[in-house]
Every structure is written in C-alpha cells, then in structure tokens.
Amino acid sequence: MNSVWRSVVPAFFMLVMSGQTSVYGYTVYVTNEKDNTVSIIDTVSLKVTKTIKVGQRPRGIILTKDGKQLLVCASDDDTVQVIDPVTLETIKHLPSGPDPELFILHPTGNPLYIANEDDNLITVIDLVTNKVLAEIPVGVEPEGMGLSPDGKVLVNTSETTNMAHFIDTSTYEVFDNVLVDARPRFAEFTADGAKLWVSSEIGGTVSVIDPTTRKIIKKISFAISGVRSEAIQPVGIRITKDGSKAFVALGPANRVAVINAKTLEVEKYLLVGQRVWQMVLTPDEKLLFTTNGVSNDVSVIDVPALKVIKSIGVGRFPWGVAVSPN
Amino acid sequence: MRIEGRKQFWPPRPIEQKDQMMTNCCVSPGLKNKTLKTNRRCGWLQRFVLAALMVVSTSAAIAQTSKSDVTQIKIAFLSQVIELPPKLSNLDLLPENEGVAGGQLSIKDNNTTGSFMKQAFSLKAVSVPPEKDALAVLKGLLDEGYQFIILNVPADRLLAMADFVAGKDVILFNVGAPDDRLRAKDCRDNVMHILPSHAMLADGLAQYLIWKRWRRWFLVVGRRPGDRLYADAIQRAAKKFGGKVVAERTWAYGPDARRTAQAVIPKFTQGVDYDIMIVADEIGEFGEYLAYRTWTPRPVAGTQGLRPTTWHRTHERWGSAQLQSRFFKTYHRRMTPLDYQVWAPIRAIGEGATRTRSGKFKAIRDYFRGSDFELAGFKGQKLTFRNWNWQLRQPILLAAPRALVSVSPQQGFLHQNSLLDTLGYDKPESKCQLGKQ
Questions:
Q1: Same domain, B191 and B304
Q2: ipTM above 0.90, yes or no
Q3: N or C: which end of chain B has fewer CB within 10 A?
C-alpha cells in the first residue's frame, strides 16, 4: 500500500496544482495480468496516478467511445468488468463467456465483440441491454480482434488454428479464412479499411491482407542485428490514422518496429522494455504506450520524433493498454 | 442465444461421441466411482478388449457422417508399456488414458481448424499388453490404411517396426523411447522423434546447473538399462558443459525404499563432497526417497527432484495456460509429458494438412520435414525437426514437483544455427546416416 500512496499522493497534489491536467492530457489504463490491478497513467506527467484492484488475470482493456465506461477482461473470473473511470467503481459485469482475452467495439460504440480463448468462440454483447447477441464459433484459441472502419467485417485470429477468420457482423457468420504464419495474435485494419494487418508471434511475421480479395499482399519480416530470429515475436500492431506509419511490438526482441505503412518497409527499431506485447496511440497520435510484460513497465514513445522518452513502472506483467478518448 | 450458423462451422458431432468412448476405454462406467485400487484391477485384457470395441465404434461414427467433400486424415497411436512404475499405491495415480487424452485433444484442435478447411481428423488408439506382439498390431493398422502412426514402445520394438515399414508410405512418431542410439547409429529415415533424447534432457539440466555454478555432481544410478543410459547422458553433459561427476554409485537396495530409506540412504551417500545429487531412476523405484536423507544436505535433480521434461502441470508461460486449461476441463486431470508428446505430432500432421490444403500422405510428410515447417508448441519459440536425425528441436522444462524452476537452453550457451541445438547431439557429432540403414 505504501508504494501506492507514495505515487498517488504526489500525483494528486500535482493534479491539484496543475489544475485541469485532463484538458491537455489523456488517461492511459494498463492491466497488470499477475497483480490483478489496473495502473492509471496521466499522459502529461507520465506518472502512475493510481492503481486499482480488478478481477483475476486482467488482460484486454478498452474504453467505450464516449469514455464513460472502462471495460476489463478478467480472464480467470470469466467476466468483463465494467468500471466507471471517474469513480473507479465497478458498475457491472458483462456475460462475456469463459476466459475473455481481447475485445473490440463496433465503430458506433455498440456491440462489443469478445474473444473467448478457452472455448473457441466470439461472444457478441449488447452493452445497453447487457445481453449476448450471438456466439460465433471460430478456430482454436481466438485472440486478435479487428473491425473494418464501417463495422461490417470482424476479423478474429485464432492462435492454434493459425487463421484470420472474416466474420460478417450482420449475420455473425464466418465467410472466409486466411491462413497466416504460426500463432496469430493481433488484427488491425487501416483507418481507410483498405488493408488488414495480422501479426504472427511464432512465425515472426506480419501479414498485410487485402480485405476485399482476402489475399496476403505482403508478409513483413524483421531482422535486428544482435537479436536471435526466434526472439522476434510480433504481437501488437498500431497504425496512424493517415496510414503513414505502423508500429509492431516484437515481444522478447524488446523492440517496437516502425514500418512505413505505405511501402510496407521497416524503417526503424525502437528499444523498449522486455517482452513488449500491446500498444496504444493517444488520440492526437503524439504518444505511443507499450506494455512490457517481463520488465513490468510501460515505455512511452514520442511518435513524431520516433524516440522512446520514458519508461513508467507499473504492476507485474502489464498486458493490455487503453487510452481515454479525451 | 445461439445462432443458426453454428452448425456449419462446428466440428461434426461424432468427435464428441468419440471422446466419451475414448475416456471410457479403460474404465468401464461402473468402475468410475470406485477407489483407485478397484480401478487398477481393470486388467490388460479388459483394457485391450474395451480399446478394440472403442475403435470399432469410433470408426463407425466417423463413417456415418463423412461427407464426400471432407478429407479424412487418420492417425493411429500404438502404445505398449513393458515395465510399469512400481505400484506405490498411495502416490500419484497413473491416468488410464495417459497419452490418448493428449492425442484426442490434439485431434479436437485439428478438427476445429479442419472445419474451416474441410478436413476431418481421427485417432485410433491401441494399447497392447506387454506379452502380446505389438508388431502384429502394427501390421493390422497398416492393413487398415494408417500411414501416420505414433508409437509409445521401447527402442528395440520401435526399430523392428521401423524396419518393417521401411519403403512403405508410412511415418512413425516416437513418443516413448528416449534412447540416444535411435537418433544416432540406429536412426531411421521413417521415424520422427517427438520426445527429447536422454542427451537433450541431460544437457537441459546441465546448462542450468552450470549457470547455478553447481558443478560437482553425485550421480546415483538405478538398476535398469534405461537408468544406465540416463546416467551416461549425464556423464556426457558434464564433459560437454564443464561439470564434474565426483562420484557415481549404483542403487542396489531393491525396489521399494520407503521403509528402509532412513537407514540406508545416509550411509549410501556418505563420504562425497558435491553440490547436487543427480539420480537416474526412470521408473521411480527409489529416487523420491533420496531428498532429505542424504548424508550432507544437498538438493536432488534428474529423474526425480528437479526434472528435465517436456511438460509439467506448473508450466503456464507462452500461452500454455490455455492448453493446460483446455486439457483439464476436458479430462479432469493434469496433462502429463506423454500427453504432450502425443499432442505434438498430431498438431504437426494437422499443420501439414492445413498448410498444404491436402490430406495426401506425401504432401503432409514433406511439409513437416521441409524448411517451412514451424510448430507452435507452447514453448516460446517455434519447434522444428533436425533434418539430420528427425529429432524435434525443443526447449526443455526444468520442473520441481510444484514449481517450474527454469527452461533450457539457458542464456549464454550459444550456437551458430539454433540455440536449441545446444541440447543433445549436434549435427557434426551425429552418427546418424539417414537413408543408409
């Protein structure tokens, strides 16, 4: 507790002294998988302002589009916890199905699509009525979730089946599957919907797929001098809204790859903490936050300068990361 | 609410029916709730008959629903355990479906993927009593058209089987014989080794001990030939990594040391200055009784204590928590190394079928023997085969009874091609000449 107070108290004073920090900054939320907590980081001070207790084995985390609800996958509690970001109280639990790992919201803000890792299912939940709209069978160990910007196509990756499943969100049916390299972990559409990026952790590649033809345009591979190829394990992907840059977290290679999202060439590797998995861009795209599971910290990348500017200690095994919309 | 589309993608029902039958194969329903002792009376003959029955019904179930546009891929698992561990009845239970359960789970995983590929996988599991002729059973499997056959048999029988199927379109997967000679002078081009060899296990342990700077080892060897092979691998690992076997003693106090250990072991272990005791006792006659009884207080590793292994209930890294949990939910027990070793080749065959979009023997075999093959085996990196002896490259878990201690290869043990090749016999020292047997 002491350490929490040590960080909370100064942060509180700083908040008071600086007045309305939130006008200029955003709030970043990080799930700590082994601590059963969420660390809350202020993007101006770049400090942990508070750590709250959540359910067991928290992994995926997301804010609703209006920023009024923070959703946390409490995987070992088989539930999605809904937290009020202002009071930090738990409002309710969603009937997520067993072992929720990652999820994504429809562009309109509802429904929520959840990957149930243990049951080879996607559960679709209406956030207003709290009801399950559908359960969609997919491959073994579903995890990555991507939605086309128009909300019509949901893409799920299954880690042991090694496929990206294309799901029609109006019929909840899988209409196509694309085989990618081993252990796909993450799926991300570009903002214009023209491309879909899928990372393969064990395969060590990122497949860039044309969502209309469902053909792989290019498999991006990585080479870092001094790092064994087996240690290059791509997981999280984030692409800037203008479609110019993509960031790929490379796991135990402890690097984030910066890729020219137009030419699909790797431009740079940024050294971050150990075993980097998930990432989030602030809405103004000035900062990128990465969760580093083994070094128990979050690296902050200055996006225009492409420099790592800080690492922030959080709880044990930081996993997911989300940012407030304003 | 479930949606209509579900049926379209879900694996065909017979898979679940088969699971039920498989689970029951050695435990008749009436015996289920009785004590272990009763359960263990379920004799070999009974198991054999039940297994045979199960197989018949399984094939029937598969045949019923097989559609012409679904490619069927058949895999067989033949197990013949010659020497069971001693019946120390108050110790761990030996699961009746050990290995088979791992195989079934893998089939289920493959079938989930297969439902998107129009491929259906099935497993026929046969358990052969020690006195029966396993080769005859293998011939039966060949007659039924099985080409992918997983074998849990001792080294000599495996060699006889490999030579019998030589020249045929058949691939055997070794999941039960750790003997190094099967990967060296007695290697065969038609045998893929899933479980690590004695040398790989010993090297995995040795790297950790060297990292700990526990260099002086006291080797205690059991009475069986397998124990000798394990001990030889430890001796080799000492030379390879700079350890020293300061003493080697052979256990000669009979099979059940529970009551006599306190009197015997202090004396047996007296007069040696060492860092750690390494025990070679594969079937578990005495190894468990060494800890806390040695003359000087020292930890124990090897076949007991800190064990190098392929799988352990405490392993949860690299997504393995998911596999552990899937297994536990389905079979209500923990996954064992043998379960993992049967799970892996079936996934390799599944990968071959998925990637080549084919159910053809040659396409699948060539895929998992080719350079594009990569298996996500929950060990933090892809698993591949060494093309000079068809041994699966893999990290080695080092597990204490209730905690995973480390995973080898350890940092700092370098290799020009793959760090995994620091474990076991490397290509330049291999005596295996594939295709020249």
A1: no
A2: no
A3: N
